[in-house]
Amino acid sequence: MTPIFKVDHTNCQDCPIRHRAVCAHCDADELEELEEIKYYRSFEAGQTIIWSGDQMNFVGSVVSGIASLTQTMEDGRTQMVGLLLPSDFVGRPGREIAPYDVQATTDLVMCCFRKKPFEELMGTTPHIAHRLLQMTLDELDAAREWMLVLGRKTAREKIASLLSIIARRDASISKKGNSGPIVFDLPLTREAMADYLGLTLETVSRQISALKKDQVISLQGKRHVTIPDMGRLMEEAGDDSDGGFLV
Amino acid sequence: MTPIFKVDHTNCQDCPIRHRAVCAHCDADELEELEEIKYYRSFEAGQTIIWSGDQMNFVGSVVSGIASLTQTMEDGRTQMVGLLLPSDFVGRPGREIAPYDVQATTDLVMCCFRKKPFEELMGTTPHIAHRLLQMTLDELDAAREWMLVLGRKTAREKIASLLSIIARRDASISKKGNSGPIVFDLPLTREAMADYLGLTLETVSRQISALKKDQVISLQGKRHVTIPDMGRLMEEAGDDSDGGFLV
DNA sequence: CGAGCATTTGACACATGTCAAGATATGTGG
DNA sequence: CCACATATCTTGACATGTGTCAAATGCTCG
């Protein structure tokens, strides 16, 4: 059933996330140790990778595709609490039980490590532990940034915030000149966007239509977005338009 | 002006947060190194400890009292993104500029470390780095828990969630038998609660009145709260009442 | 070509925000 | 110790943004 997507590299040296993932700071020796406990897994869009409450017997990195972390209340209300992009880390060393659902939002490849050996490796290779601390602190900042969005922004600002985050990420990968229009594909359905933003999918749809009418964005099809003026979008997001963002 | 509150211990061995803070796993030698770069600072309720955008030249632990992290938009909307209790860590090794305001919500004592030496110590004493990773992962979980509150809960559920968090914390410190009424003082003004919950202070006030009318809570004065039935409160919070909480 | 999703749009309800007044605590100076 | 001044909190009336329910439209893929 599960299709195996191509992993077009075989060793860590050629890995596309080599310099950004949890293994970023590792030297050749350390990589060799990681190679021994790693394996690739592929998931198709929509598949659940880990169920909240499950035993977690691996941790790992997203190699390609997008995954989401979601929490669900008993009555079915759900909130996405994290969006995992290539190089992001999944799982928590030292914890047995998964606290959220992890789902593949798009087709996805993960580089997994068996949990026990990985935890042991953490103790002996400070480079891994240190990198994981950095990444966790970054995620904490991102989560707090998102708390402002959820708690204080209007629906329109929420949509603009989400679009500018995705646009910024795409820009940081494809390194275009930073003026001129930005173009990308939305990797999320309206429902996923709603779950991320704490809105309903109807409100998401309405606000996207409104932004389109006001020419803040334009759409080709449902998913292909063009942003003629990034500064304008960031104003709509309620952020400082001078983009004061520290990477 | 700034009153100096009593710090009734002089060395780390007698410190009330010795076994919970970033130094928890340190052995005697490591503590000695920390002693050399530490100093205490006191703040009175309402004082700002660090302004967003400021240079940060120290990191540290909350010894007593409560601090809050807040983000502010240009038009003045503010969202609290973290509540720091005794033993919680302030600041981020490897970062120059503070991303949020840090304020003393109550009178507060911090155990500060000069940033540079602390960062060096992190490199040489894995116990500190490891503990900081643990604590950061815990904070990340708390932040994500809070994203569900902000994004999906009603005003009444938000208030109940906040009360149950504070109640749970107080219970974990004062270790009462876990049935029977719980009593505590609210350390937050209605406005601070509103900023934490993404509400207005009027809505906070109304919902507290409503919970009081429905006998979920009772008040003696404005700040002194009694919870006759913790399970009931957690139902109101929309959480599983069987308290499925992993410490 | 038709079935099944994803998305858009409309009408209406309701929760929460806004603005304004009063009430209750808290502290200060006479 | 009292009286006033100030901050905090409560309550009311009304406005509005977002949710809910329902139907129509547009895609995608067998």
From TrEMBL, chains A, B:
InterPro entries: cNMP-bd_dom (IPR000595), cNMP-bd_dom_sf (IPR018490), Env_Response_Regulators (IPR050397), HTH_CRP (IPR012318), RmlC-like_jellyroll (IPR014710), Tscrpt_reg_HTH_Crp-type_CS (IPR018335), WH-like_DNA-bd_sf (IPR036388), WH_DNA-bd_sf (IPR036390). One of its GO terms (cellular component) is cytosol. Residues 153-231 form the HTH crp-type domain. GO terms for molecular function: DNA binding; DNA-binding transcription factor activity. Residues 22-139 form the Cyclic nucleotide-binding domain. Keywords: DNA-binding, Transcription, Transcription regulation. CDD domains: CAP_ED, HTH_CRP. This is Transcriptional regulator. The lineage of its organism: Bacteria, Pseudomonadati, Pseudomonadota, Alphaproteobacteria, Rhodobacterales.
